[in-house]
Design a protein that fits this description.
alpha/beta, Spore Coat Polysaccharide Biosynthesis Protein SpsA, Chain A, 2 domains, four-stranded mixed beta sheet
């Protein structure tokens, strides 16, 4: 089932230089999705569109689309081939120059995030904006997490990039069960096209598939070694550290 809202103001926003398409993918995660929708609705930045790609949920997600149809510009609900297939669908629906992937449960740090980022002109040589991000731990405390492209640490919820990058580097690879296709795409973009912004973009949900277990961290570490960001020796030491921490956690 495909639901598309008539575009209204989005027709005016479409293809604007600093227009942004916010893309959320979800599956049977209604309550988390509502958090994200409400966060997007509070953004005071005008040049935005909101796209939700749902994997044909059965938990009432489609009723959420109807409730928030004044906020959602495009919603698609149909079976997909996993998270990266869903993300690619959203990108292909996007009308604006910039995109951000904000998963169900992720929220913007505050209502001014996008307006703060785009209030200054973005140099044409920059195609990738990113920031540190927050996570909320089990005690409900907000923890600041640092990222650094030079170290191969970039998260899609805290990344805003030009949609045109997909014309150069392709779309996200469908690599099930591996969940590192976004990092593979990000590290393909030259470091010189990155700009780290002081505005903290997102507060990230920690219950997603990429946060379950150590296997995704291990895959990401392998990716950084492959791109020459980590040496084999340092990578091996970090791999051992990951395994030890997991053993301690399980003990």
């Amino acid at each position: 089932m495909v639901q598309q809202k008539e575009y209204g103001n989005a027709k005016i926003r479409k293809n604007m230089g600093n227009g942004i398409s916010i893309i959320t993918v979800t599956y049977n995660n209604k309550e988390a999705l509502i958090k994200t929708i409400e966060s997007v609705s509070q953004q005071d930045y005008e040049l935005k569109e909101f796209i939700i790609i749902d994997g044909d949920s059965s938990d009432g997600t489609k009723e959420v689309f109807e409730k928030y149809r004044s906020v959602i510009d495009i919603s698609i609900s149909e079976p997909d081939n996993g998270i990266y297939d869903a993300m690619n669908k959203g990108i292909k629906q996007a009308h604006n120059e910039w995109v951000i992937m904000l998963n169900a449960g992720d929220v913007f740090t505050d209502r001014h995030v996008l307006s703060n980022i785009f209030k200054k002109a973005i140099p044409p040589t920059v195609s990738f904006l990113y920031s540190d991000y927050y996570e909320v731990n089990k005690q409900g405390k907000k923890i600041l997490k640092h990222v650094d492209r030079a170290k191969g640490v970039v998260f899609h919820q805290a990344s805003i990039y030009r949609k045109s990058l997909h014309e150069t580097y392709g779309y996200y690879l469908q690599t099930h069960p591996y969940i590192v296709s976004d990092l593979l795409f990000f590290l393909s973009v030259p470091d010189k096209e990155y700009l780290k912004v002081p505005t903290i973009i997102s507060i990230n949900d920690t219950s997603g598939i990429s946060r379950n277990g150590t296997w995704v961290a291990e895959q990401a570490l392998g990716m950084r070694i492959g791109f020459g960001i980590e040496s084999i020796i340092m990578g091996t030491l970090k791999f051992i550290k990951i395994k030890i921490l997991k053993m301690i956690e399980l003990s």
